Amino acid sequence: MKTRSIFLTILFLLGTVSLFAQEVTKKFEVKGNCGMCEKRIETAAKSVDGVTIADWDKDTKMMEVTFDASKTSEDAVQLAIANVGHDTPMHKADSKVYNDLPKCCQYPKDEHPHMDMQKDEKKDIDHDMYHDMKHDMNNKPKHEVQ
Ligand SMILES: [Cu+2]
Question: How far apart are the CA of 140 and the centre of ligand 1, in A?
């Protein structure tokens, strides 16, 4: 009887723990080159409270990180990685930190990311304007006919 109730209590506690510990695994790209990068990236990710597993592949540049979603987030993990000099999809490394990396670790940076962004935005606007013009041209004659 007593053993059974202890067993049930343990079972209940385990259930509660797994309910609060929301383990999730996320995959994202992290820029880097070599084994030194791997150590730096993984150490940065693991320094975030709640991260249990962090594995970066220097060939695919893919990071796989498992963490407790009630303690941290993918955004926080990516920020920690960017803070040690490695670009992630959500956070870009500060150029000062990047320049302080050993030469072998200075992965190819996207040149002028802001200029590219502006170019893309402009393209979208032009496309929309053209689309609206075409739309107007197609519709106007119909209105006149009706
Ligand atoms: Cu490196």
Answer: 61
